[in-house]
Amino acid sequence: MGEWIVDFKGRNHSTAINLNFLWKEQNVFIMDNHRAALWCWIPSLKQNSDVGLFHVDRHYDALFSDKDYSHFPHKEFSSLSIEEYLSCGYDNDYFSVTPLFRWDNYLGLFIEKYRKQVKEWAFATHGKGSAPKDIRYAAYEPWEFPAALVELKGKWIFNLDLDYFFSRMSSGQMEKLFTDMYIINFVKGIRTCLDSGVIVSLTVSLSPECTGGWQGAESVLQLVTEGLGIDFNLPA
Q1: What is the pLDDT of residues 174-192, one digit of tens each?
Q2: Is residue 210 a contact partner of residue 58, using CB atoms and an 8 Å limit?
Q3: Rounded to an integer, what distance in angstroms lies between the CA atom of residue 164 and that of residue 186?
Q4: From its phi and psi, is residue 84 left (phi > 0), alpha (psi between -120 and 50) or beta?
Q5: Are 30 and 98 contacting, i.e. CB atoms less than 8 angstroms apart?
Q6: Average pLDDT in the chain
Q7: 81/102 Cα distance (integer angstroms)
């Protein structure tokens, strides 16, 4: 049975700084945006040496700034509760708090803090956003999946954003870029890696702002949970 780490708050805007829910079943985490992903990875990072990180997302999510990193809670970070993690931030010039971990920088902060503990890096993106700096990584194209997943060796943290499966059409709307069969087989490849112990932690983000809204995100989430064999649906 899964558990709600952050109770569902409704189908609200996620944007860069909000988190409307976080759900976990064993080593699978599902959330509406990936700003909580770094917190989810820490236990697996502590338990597994020479782990890799595989990032599948429309965006790189690797924005980095020294100002953000200067506020990273380095001491006892691994013991932070999810509430403490989400509340990390600092005052800005407009007398309001800037959340430290956001949907565009959480991976950049993770790279800076933990790069020496990560053996390999792999990215599959649409080339959007700030690319990672100062690391070497394997780059994957869509046609290399799902076969590339079952060929993985070693131990991996796998970070999947459902917006990878979407693109903006001529109408301006975000629509699915891949068939249902492609998505289901993609996720079945992930399931194989979870069962074999190759993937030690899976984080899944809906990103409704980038997937045609909550309806679009949840339609693909159904394919993902089917492929994973997980019983999960958001409350009505």
Answers
A1: 999 999 999 999 999 999 9
A2: yes
A3: 12
A4: alpha
A5: no
A6: 94
A7: 17
Nearest to 34 by CA among 53, 15, 49: 15
**The pTM is what?**
0.96
For the chain, domain boundaries: 3-228
Cα separation, 122 vs 158, in Å, equals: 9
The DSSP call for residue 93 is: T
Residues 92-115 have pLDDT tens digits of 776 678 899 999 999 999 999 999
Beta strands 51-56; 155-161: pairing state: parallel
Tokens read off for 235: 């409350």
Find all residues with CB under 8 Å of 62, minimum gap 6, and list them: 105, 107, 108, 111, 129, 130, 131, 132, 133
Token duo for residue 30: 């599902």
CA-based nearest residue to 11, from 221, 227, 224: 221
Distance between CA atoms of residues 26 and 86, nearest Å? 21
Q: Determine the Cα–Cα distance for residues 120 and 52; give it in Å rounded to an integer.
A: 4
pLDDT score, position 95: 61
